[in-house]
Amino acid sequence: MIHSVAIVGAGTMGNGIAQVCGQGGLTVRLIDPVAAALAKAEDNMVRNIQLLIDNGLLNSSVETVMEKVSFSDRLDTAESADLVIEAIPEKFQLKQQLFQQLEQICSSRAILASNTSGIPITRIANTIGTPERVIGTHFYMPAHLIPLVEVIQTEHTSEPVIEETMNFLTTLGKTPVRVRKDIPGFIGNRLQHALAREAMSLLGQGVASAEDIDAVVKTSLALRLVFTGPVEQRDFNGLDIHLSIAEYLYPDLENTTEPLAILKNKVAANELGIKTGKGFYDWRDKNIPEIQAKKNQELINLLKIIKD
Ligand code: NAD
Question: Do 97 and 16 form a contact (C-beta atoms < 8 A)?
Fold first, then answer.
């Protein structure tokens, strides 16, 4: 049984994961060498817990959750954890070094999980002597709101480790999905990139504006996909119809194996999106914190509907 969790890395993902574990009543240690990252994580957690309470999505108090969580800049404080979830930057060398340290620090029974977005879990597992306890737990941003966690097994991961991780996430109220092959992008990022590649291709070809392409998704596909996934939806449409369309459409779909020029050019021009003020949209005169808060509130409103 998992009673105690250590989260290593208190950035965007780490603080949300720590919050979810604290809400589940587990003893949580959030570890980061940067004091400012720990302080920011604590502020975010307090604000986000209160937001869930205010919206009726959490029946607890900020104090009850936060008294389960402690903060440290020392990795050896992960020593007593039954489960360690790594959420440090997406750099293989850093993760490799960390897992080797964790293998020395933690009990041999501890499960070692990575929140990597795309580094194959097998690569990380192969760097230590006990790969059977290494697993992927890919939370989605924002981790305190999005229910999905992809659980990625490697050919070394033991069945008890997979089952215990799946059960643990279920008790936290998450929706764990077992990914049985350790392939790049797992499931969610493969689907997301397939859609984004086609959207950028349409934009690059001048088929429609960014606003109109987004409107097509927001006012049709996205609404249905909340309740009926892309596989199930095909059954409602009829597989014979789908086949007829696929036969003439597939040759015309974007199938480049390199990132598209429209994306590369944006990045070369430092148009990286919200963080530099411009991406596919112009954000320079916009109130970003207000927009982000509104989008989070819209997500919460939707989660309330789905939950009922
Ligand atoms: P981040 O840059 O926001 O935070 C990383 C934190 O790790 C920083 O606070 C840093 O000080 C700390 N850190 C660096 N080295 C460390 C070490 N050796 N020990 C402990 N802490 C260390 O990163 P993030 O966006 O939270 O991403 C973390 C992981 O989650 C990455 O692997 C990323 O690919 C993955 N991920 C990110 C998102 C996302 O949307 N941001 C979504 C899913 C998965």
Answer: no
